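Task: encode each sequence below as structure tokens.

Item 1
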Amino acid sequence: MMKKIQFPGLNGVRFIAALLVIVDHTELFKSYLGYPTLWANSYSAYLGAFGVSIFFVLSGFLITYLLLEEQQEAPIRIRHFYMRRILRIWPLYYLILVLGFFVVPHLDFFQLPMYSSDMGDSLHRLLLFVGLAANVAFVYLPTVPFANVLWSVAVEEQFYLFWPHVIRIKRYLPWIMLLLLTGYLSLKFYAGSVDRQLELLVIRTRFSSMIVGGIGAYLLFYQKTVIKLLYHRLMQVGLMVLFVVMGLDWINYHSLAWMQDELISLVVCGLILNIATNPRTLISLDNGLFAYLGKLSYGLYVYHLFTVVLVLKGLPAIVDLQTLPSWIGYPLTLGAILVLTTGFSHLSYRYVESYFLRKKVRYSAVLSGDMVEGTKYNVPSTKSSC
């Protein structure tokens, strides 16, 4: 019988990550259009990067755990792994690519000052996006409005070109994970002395966050003693405090600024392990609303820029955002953006994504997430070290 795993609360984590990105871009686009904005505050401009870090850690954790489960019964079927990634990621990725390159540039309504760019000479950008290298295009070439958000999706796809092969190396797996993490950090540390754009590319290609998530999955799978330490109430409180303080950008990292993303990833990984696997977690995100919104998180992420523009340009026909008190204006605009984005994402999930997700089952040795509604994850007994 096929294994079934559903980590409670992970959809809630997905929604929180998407929400942080949406808030960040809402404030940024307000600044482009000359509306009152929180963009000048450091924490507002930082929320998007923070949310993407959560996505990366969560992806590394979940994919690694599912691969470890699959490997318990038989060798990992690499072809099937890539088919699952293609069916989950490519439909929306290439839909947004087509919209960003071939549709939006011809719609005056979606043109924004300081954001829209000339798409007349975009062959190099197009080839990079098509080749799942949107992160490279983001750093080295002009912006592709509404499609640049795909950079993080491309990073994940690049990471998973080699990660399942790493997981197959059972005997030395923890050491190889640590070696890869150390290698990435070394490259990140020295890239700035070589070239500024190379440094930006390494920072944006955040394999380290996914490796941290993978290490968390390994510990959960094989090292229950370590996980029990993370379950302690004081540890949970400490992780929650650090999460809030880091999210508000209140920490001055000084000489450790070059590994800020990795420190955030460690905290996020600790919280994910508690939310998803701790029977006495202090944070429960396992409810119907979060489950629904988290299920739509991929759509929320890739569609929200369109709805931000629709609301910020369409709402002034009803109310004057310039004179509206901030305590009304902020929740009004963000609420409208969330409702509209959720609506688009729901339609996308029901009529586009679900079709491809159903096809994933034939390539899955372990069912997870929405494919096993109602099946909860149980904290495993300690397994022998690999």
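Item 2
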Amino acid sequence: MSRRYINLILILVLLAVSAWASFTNSGLGSFQPKTVLGLDLRGGLQVILEADVADGIAVSRQDLEDAKQILENRANALGVSEVTFQVAGDKSIVGEFPGVSDPQEVISTISKVALLEFVDFGDEDPYALMGKTVITDEGRAVEVEGTPTPGPEVTPTAEPGITEKTWHTIMIGSDLKEVGVIPVQGSPYYEISFVLSENGAKVFREFTSANQGKILGIVLDKVVISAPSINEPITDGQGVITGKFTRDEANNLAVQMRYGSLPIPLKLVQTRLIGPTLGADSLNKSLIAFAIGFAIVLLFMAIYYRIPGLVADLAIISYAVIAFAIFRSIPITLTLSGIAGFILSTGSALDANILSFERMKEELRAGRTVTQAIELGWKRAWPSIRDSNIAALITSAILFWFGSTFGASVVKGFALTLALGVVVSVFTALFVTRNFLGVILSWVKDPEKRPGLFGL
């Protein structure tokens, strides 16, 4: 019994934390639980992009995955943090933007090909350059053979950046062959290593040899993302960008350098704007249906199984609170199909309790004590509980793979919430219900003489 009371305390602490994560919008530091509604519940924009290549030319899966990652980075820069992109089929990418307010801005941003440039900033202050928008000649003066020459005069745009001056691009991102992140020995910081193409190595060798101590900026879509100085000539086509980069900062910069431009051209083949009215109506009806069904289930369990049924009701409520806390903490984007998966997993929690209670009743009829009946009931029901839930997890894994492979976000959301719900339901059935029941029945005097408490 002392063990059961310790378990009860742990359960109550878990429920308190889960309730906080489920029903509050305040967080701790970077941990901010939030409810994220999907496209079908909030409304928004759905786009389908397709590789713009000639017929017969194959597009690799890796190119599509890389393009998907770049598109997500671009969309998140717009403040659309819940955006999702999925590779669909052999040459398509599906993007969903819940709650988007300006579809044209999103479409124009994700459709363009990003431009990565290495820009000659001379003696400018690197700290003043970081994050600024600048005007460049986009490498128009870079020669394949010979030394780069000064760029042509370009009329400043409406967003002049640091000065009205046009900065010269000595090389663009297409000359990068490899980009990696390496730790600095004896330091908590990291560096970015890079390898250049043959033409890029020639350009860098000549430029860095003539400009030691100058600033060579890295510019993505006219925004300065790094402004390192040239410490020594880079003559072999390999170099490092040093600075007090954390691991995440170095990785982010490496990704921007490596994938500044899309690996394949994309064209927009379909857009669909979904209004929030339909989503709100669907959400309200789903919540009403869930509330009615949940209330009927709780009532049935309490009437049919009496004390075990009431304990199961507490466990199912605990399951709902814990599962919702997980959904808000990750966070998982909730869609109608995801809510359906969550509701279906509630059935798994009920099945486990019902199997255990029926076995417990059989043990009581056979003359076992209540303590023996509880332990034997759970033990003998476990194989059935285990097998049914493993089957549900295998099905969820197959559905998740299908949704990820073919861009079926509806199927993917259903599979994810179902799998998480099944895991939580098994935990609550085997740990929460079992300990609640043991503690409550320890308060009942001579329970063996009162079979009505168990629905017998």
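Check on item 2: Residues 130 and 224 are 5 Å apart (CA to CA). Confidence is low (pLDDT under 50) at residues 140-163.
End of task.
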